[in-house]
Design a protein that fits this description.
By secondary structure, the chain is of the alpha/beta class. The chain has helices at 15-28, 43-47, 59-63, 69-72, 93-97, 106-113, 131-139, 151-170, 190-203, 216-220, 228-231, 236-251; strands spanning 2-6, 33-37, 74-75, 81-84, 120-124, 142-148, 176-185, 207-213. The longest helix is centred in the middle third of the chain and has 20 residues, at 151-170.
């Protein structure tokens, strides 16, 4: 069971959109996927059509040791894709856990206790470096970093890389960066091309070849409770996420790469 945290300290970079659509593409390719919604806003849950009535158990219960992964997971309606939804209660978890000695390892422990019902676990992190994101990084084998093609993205990337080094040194020495995905790519914008070139010059092959374009269908899909891959599988955004998933699969450990 390979665990990938989808993280960026900066908001609005397409993190949740990437989580939803990469999870869908991996499930479609034959992987058994669990998406853990670790953002109190619960956008990944909503984007996969998980109604509030279905959120009897949530990531809050998992972190507080009130439920295991199997108990808290619900089917998404997409074959082979399950979700552990988020509720607003999750926003209080950081305060409730602050005095516990194992507060950074709650999610890791829950994953270690779970049976191998899934091949890949994806964690949609909140857009901040708080206790929730730290839990995700401690639990993860690797990070998928969506990076918006704009000037300030480079500064945010530097901060994230520093954070990864601190997590490695203190909590999770095996944490790696699976890849950086360039999002909201606009070929008409010269700055987009410059940011892309700069990121590739610094990180090289860590950056995925596939770029995710600005695409209105990607923005529309969550309001229908559907991944873009189902809402409009022919749009440029869906095609890009399918290509990104193919690249990602090639970077998975062989035993998890069931589609290879």
């Amino acid at each position: 069971m390979f665990c990938i945290a989808i993280a960026n300290q900066k908001g609005g970079v397409g993190k949740t959109t990437s989580a939803i659509n990469v999870a869908t593409a991996l499930a479609a390719s034959g992987h058994r996927v669990l998406l853990i919604d670790l953002d109190p806003q619960g956008n990944a849950s909503t984007g996969l059509g998980i109604a509030q009535a279905q959120r009897e158990r949530s990531t809050y219960d998992v972190l507080l040791d009130d439920a295991g992964l199997a108990e808290a997971s619900v089917p998404s309606g997409i074959p082979q894709l399950d979700v552990i939804p988020a509720t607003v209660d999750l926003s209080g978890a950081e305060i409730e856990l602050v005095e516990t000695s194992d507060r950074t390892h709650r999610l890791r422990r829950a994953i270690d206790r779970a049976d191998r019902s899934w091949d890949v676990v994806l964690i949609d992190c909140p857009p901040s470096l708080g206790l929730l994101t730290i839990n995700a990084m401690v639990a993860a084998d690797a990070l998928l970093v969506p990076l918006q093609c704009e000037f300030f993205a480079l500064e945010g990337l530097s901060q994230l890389l520093n954070t990864v080094e601190r997590i490695r040194s203190r909590f999770n020495p095996s944490l790696s960066i699976l890849g950086v995905a360039l999002t909201m790519y606009d070929r008409r914008n010269r700055l987009t091309e410059q940011v892309s070139a700069d990121v590739r010059a610094v990180l090289g092959k860590v950056v995925f070849d596939t770029v995710i374009p600005r695409n209105v269908r990607l923005s529309e899909a969550p309001s229908h409770g559907l991944p873009a891959l189902i809402y409009d599988h022919r749009c440029s955004g869906s095609e890009a996420y399918i290509a990104l998933a193919r690249e990602l699969i090639q970077r998975l450990p062989r035993e998890e790469n069931v589609a290879a």
